[in-house]
Task: inverse folding
């Protein structure tokens, strides 16, 4: 993704002139989650990917979602392990004559 | 047909890669002769380039000469098997590299170029390349930066995802090889 990183650097350095006005938080959150409700042709998408301010916010939101997703995954894994442990205990108790 | 020198004489592999032992040299020559048709076959089958047989053979013989120097007791048959194995492995490696270069080799080119240059130059070069992207490639780049997959982008464009990817990389390739192609700057042939 070197080219995409170069694009990011370029936008953050202010080398790109964005078209349109900055987007609200709700839209940026949806975009960070790659919501299917957003059409790729939407001009706001183009703006968010070329405006340094929106891009910075998007990067922060992405990091936030990544962290949230990691927490959810760890929680899910712990819950699954607990369930397996409980199941093993119940099965072993039933087998004892 | 085994490789020949400029005057049409048959080259001996052991003269190119000396083993330091006459008996080992004989074995290497015999194994080289026996493996040559296989090198031609692999060059054609994997790389679709019959001339690549020489490179494959060079690589395999170099490997085998080191091997026979370490184990001079090994038979010519054993050496032939080893040479063929090295040829096949090398041909597969080269074929895989060629396939990767078709889709993403240019990114690697860009990476190498960027690593070798100081920051200011990198930025100027990246700016030059990215500024010259067509609206199509520019949009694809933005969507990719936003994290959309090739399939999602292709679905939106109503195209095949490999076609989108290929078109995108082809454009980047042409810009990397000829950054001053469009606009008022001199044109490349």
Result:
């Amino acid at each position: 993704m070197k080219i995409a990183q170069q694009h990011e650097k370029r936008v953050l350095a202010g080398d790109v002139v964005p078209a349109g006005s900055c987007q609200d938080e709700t839209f940026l959150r949806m975009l960070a989650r790659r919501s299917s409700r957003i059409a790729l042709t939407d001009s706001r998408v183009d703006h968010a990917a070329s405006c340094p301010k929106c891009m910075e916010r998007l990067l922060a939101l992405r990091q936030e979602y990544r962290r949230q997703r990691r927490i959810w995954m760890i929680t899910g894994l712990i819950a699954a392990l607990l369930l397996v442990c409980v199941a093993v205990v119940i099965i072993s108790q039933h087998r004892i004559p | 047909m085994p490789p020949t020198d400029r005057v049409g004489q048959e080259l001996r592999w052991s003269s190119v890669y000396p083993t330091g032992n006459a008996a080992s040299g004989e074995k290497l020559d015999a194994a080289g002769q026996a493996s040559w048709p296989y090198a031609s076959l692999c060059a054609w089958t994997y790389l679709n380039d019959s001339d690549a047989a020489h490179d494959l053979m060079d690589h395999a013989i170099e490997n085998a000469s080191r091997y026979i120097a370490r184990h001079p007791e090994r038979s010519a048959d054993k050496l032939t098997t080893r040479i063929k194995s090295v040829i096949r492995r090398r041909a597969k490696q080269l074929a895989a590299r060629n396939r990767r270069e078709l889709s993403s080799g240019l990114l690697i080119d860009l990476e190498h170029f960027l690593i070798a240059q100081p920051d200011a130059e990198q930025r100027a070069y990246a700016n030059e390349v990215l500024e010259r992207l067509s609206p199509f490639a520019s949009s694809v780049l933005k969507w990719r930066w936003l994290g959309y997959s090739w399939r999602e982008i292709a679905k939106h464009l109503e195209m095949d995802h490999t076609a989108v990817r290929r078109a995108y990389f082809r454009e980047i390739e042409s810009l990397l090889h000829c950054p001053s192609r469009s606009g008022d700057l001199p044109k490349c042939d």
About this structure: The CA atoms of residues 60 and 85 of chain B lie 8 Å apart. The interface with chain A takes residues 107, 110-111, 114, 123, 126-127, 130, 139, 141-148, 152-153, 156, 172 of chain B (CB under 8 Å).
